[in-house]
Design brief:
mainly alpha, three-stranded antiparallel sheet, DNA polymerase, domain 1, 282 residues, hpI Integrase, Chain A
Length: 282
């Protein structure tokens, strides 16, 4: 829903910028550009305006085509974050979606099993396992409560965007991390699964720092969202159906999930090219 006040708009925008920094792992310069583009738009029209109105607004500003494309991409992503559908319009240039970066399955294995160097290694290992092996968003890990984890069934009830619930199974590695964390988790009445040493809920920034530190220790470049992308891609590579992946990720639209079919095809093509080049060398 569209924010109803200036304070509400600012709160929504700040939450979106935090999402870009922490979950998407975007550079500060990129986040600043998004803030500028969206802030300018909000000063002239509602974030919930229809696509034709947004197109009229951008078209009347005298921007170059490249600038229009950038601003349109920022507005679309912000509206998606708020749960506002953006219908297609011919007034806007076509924006091909960039394929997300992902780890290979071997890289993911090393990333998860490399001992975590921190004062809370068992907690941090569980964070990484939930991000990759369950495909959870950072915000979902932060908000995960003890009563959402059903160990007997091996299921986590994840509460995602828009308070939409979904059931995500967890594997033996996640169970191992859960069991290990029990000995490290502070005693107390916190309803949240993952907490600080003082028993308070962890922040998004804490999880981001853990991911970056682990990535540096194993020599890869990832953000928390890279792990979610890798989760989906590896499921597809191992034969999972697209509808099932959609349900596990909590995507409202199958079109969002279909991005991974393009990624899988690209990886297959690259593997084919490498195999062909090696064959020609013999």
């Amino acid at each position: 829903m569209a924010p109803d006040s200036a304070a509400g708009m600012m709160a929504d925008l700040e939450a979106f910028l935090t999402y870009l920094r922490i979950e998407k792992g975007l550079a500060q310069t990129t986040v600043t550009a998004y803030a500028s583009d969206i802030g300018t738009m909000l000063a002239h029209c509602s974030v919930a305006a229809d696509s034709a109105s947004l197109a009229d607004y951008l078209g009347a500003r005298g921007y170059s085509k490249a600038t229009v494309r950038r601003k349109w991409a920022a507005i679309r992503l912000y509206r998606r974050f708020l749960g506002i559908e953006t219908e297609a319009t011919r007034a806007m240039p076509t924006l091909p979606r960039r394929l997300p970066a992902v780890l290979s399955q071997d890289q993911a294995q090393v990333f998860l099993t490399q001992p975590v160097a921190s004062r809370t290694p068992k907690r941090d290992a569980l964070m990484l396992a939930l991000l990759y092996a369950c495909g959870m968003r950072v915000s979902e890990v932060v908000q995960l409560r003890l009563d959402q984890v059903d160990r007997s069934e091996g299921i986590i009830r994840v509460i995602g965007k828009g308070q939409v619930h979904r059931l995500v199974p967890f594997n033996a590695w996640v169970r191992t991390c859960l069991d290990a964390y029990e000995s490290e988790r502070p005693d107390g009445a916190s309803p949240y699964l993952i907490v600080t040493m003082q028993g308070n809920p962890v922040t998004r920034q804490t999880i981001y720092r853990v991911v970056i530190r682990q990535a540096q220790s194993v020599g890869v470049s990832v953000s928390p969202h890279t792990l979610r992308h890798s989760f989906a891609t590896h499921l597809l590579e191992n034969g999972a159906h697209l509808r099932g992946i959609q349900a596990l990720l909590g995507h409202r639209s199958i079109q969002t999930t279909q991005l991974y079919t393009h990624l899988d095809a690209k990886r297959l093509k690259n593997a084919y090219q490498r195999a062909w080049e090696n064959h020609n060398d013999t």
